[in-house]
Design goal:
The complex is a heterodimer of chains A (119) and B (106). Chain A has 119 residues and is an all-beta fold. In chain A, 0% of the residues lie in helices and 50% in strands. The radius of gyration of chain A is 13 Å and the shape is globular. The relative contact order of chain A is 0.32. Chain B is an all-beta fold and 106 residues long. Chain B is built from no helices and eleven strands. In chain B, strands 2, 4, 5, 6, 9, 10 and 11 form a seven-stranded mixed sheet that branches. In chain B, a hairpin with a 3-residue loop joins strand 5 and strand 6. Chain B is globular, with a radius of gyration of 13 Å. Classes of the chains: A mainly beta (119), B mainly beta (106). Chains A and B meet through strand 5 of A and strand 4, strand 5, strand 9 and strand 10 of B.
């Protein structure tokens, strides 16, 4: 399973950054990939990026390539995603999710973290 | 790869059948998943490889299709099935989701 470290919600100022962290439990963290998906209010799911923790390989959606940093620490079974230069359009619920491989669906999801970007 | 789901909203009565469609801009063979998303909850994997139910998913859910056209069918709709359903392609590592189909009570 995956557990998002932060709960509830966060409010951020435009231009700032937000880091969302996930901890995976059950199974060997090194055997999975961790992905990040967001959902803006009233919108659908949007994939942001995925990391293979054991290899440190990251793929990000082209839309976020300049603004997102994804890392993982196999010693603590945690992964995090940092989104920079926040804009109001980044207001969304951010989910982390686990998958068995980089070309497989996500089988466990965190509960999500609502990030509101507002001045 | 672009994903197009239809309809955007489906109004169905309890006990009826719902059929959801997902079309892709390029062939993805059967590398397609379906998720159920209820408000305030985490998305839940329903189906993968287009037609394989995920662990614990009831048999009233079935999926089909290959290439560029896929369907999710929900038979004997139960109250807990009213939610938004998303398809997702994982044929390449650059995943994409459809825009979702909301299944609502008629």
């Amino acid at each position: 399973q995956v557990q998002q470290v932060q709960s509830g919600a966060e409010v951020k100022k435009p231009g700032s950054s937000v880091k969302v962290s996930c901890r995976a439990s059950g199974g060997n963290f090194s055997n999975y990939v961790i992905g990040w998906v967001r959902q803006a209010p009233g919108q659908g799911l949007e994939w942001m990026g995925t990391i293979i923790p054991i290899l440190g390989i990251v793929k990000t959606a082209q839309k976020f390539q300049d603004r997102v940093t994804i890392n993982a620490d196999t010693s603590t079974s945690t992964a995090d995603m940092e989104l920079n230069s926040l804009e109001s359009e980044d207001t969304a619920t951010y989910y982390c999710a686990r998958g068995p491989t980089a070309t497989a669906p996500f089988d466990y999801w965190g509960l999500g973290l609502l990030v509101t970007v507002s001045s | 790869i672009l994903m197009t789901q239809s309809p955007a909203t489906l109004s169905v009565s309890l006990g009826d059948r719902a059929t959801l469609s997902c079309k892709t801009s390029h062939s993805i063979t059967t590398n397609l998943a379906w998720y159920q998303h209820r408000p305030g909850q985490a998305p839940r994997l329903l189906m993968y490889a287009a037609s394989t139910r995920a662990t614990g998913i009831p048999a009233r859910f079935s999926g089909g299709g290959s290439g560029t056209e896929f369907t999710l069918t929900i038979n004997n709709l139960q109250s807990e099935d009213f939610a938004i359903y998303y398809c997702q392609q994982y044929n390449t590592w650059l995943y994409t989701f459809g825009q979702g189909t909301k299944v609502e009570i008629k």
